[in-house]
Design goal:
The protein is 76% helix and 0% strand. By secondary structure, it is mostly helical. Helix 3 runs antiparallel to helix 4 and helix 3 packs across helix 8.
Length: 165
Amino acid sequence: MQTFSDMQRNSSYQRVIVKILTAGILVLYEALTSAYPFLPSLFGVFFVYLLFYFDSKLRFYEITYSFLYLTIYELDKGFYLFSFIIFFIIYYNFVKDEIKKYIFCKGCLAFFYTLTGYLGYYLINFIIAFILNDPKPILGYDNISYFTNIFIDTFLVLLIFKKKL
């Protein structure tokens, strides 16, 4: 009985439980986006999160969850495995800092990050498909839903990362 009362008092156990529940909820949500295409995929939100916090050692678990979520997204939507990592390395090292020099509006920056995240990721998969002589990947169920996801993700990025932009 003493061990259970110790578990309630020790907050490190609660943090582990919250992190496990968060990972489970992310996997469940990704499964729901496959079943219900009207749900936003949150690709842009996780992409922008990685852009802002990739260097942070304090957010190791959150960064790992983001990469895990985006890897499941790749598998679920039919993109090439680990193509997001290739895209992210290129974008993070060559594009991220250059954009801030030219775009000063927070809303515009959030929209640009989200738009280039979606379209750049599609472009990387298109290039890989061209190299491997495979059929070209499709944008989504229809292009309207793909661009709707971009606008929803932009709105969420503005809400979540208001101070970071």
